[in-house]
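Final report, closing paragraph on structural work. Over the funding period we assembled a curated collection of sequence-structure pairs, and we close with a single example.
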Amino acid sequence: MNKLCIFAGTTIFSYVGWYLGELIGLEFVGCFLVSGVGSIFGVWAGWKVAQKYN
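Its predicted structure, as stored:
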């Protein structure tokens, strides 16, 4: 359950970060960096969700 929640959180927040980067007009490198920050937040959020359900 823990790995699944972290995977889902990373995927979702990474995509959201990339989308927000595109929305504000960043180029590839900027979107990549914002996506990386979203991935880190997704790991944290997924871990928190998994802790809540365990």
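The mean pLDDT is 96. Residues 28-53 form the longest helix (26 residues). We thank the funder for supporting this effort.
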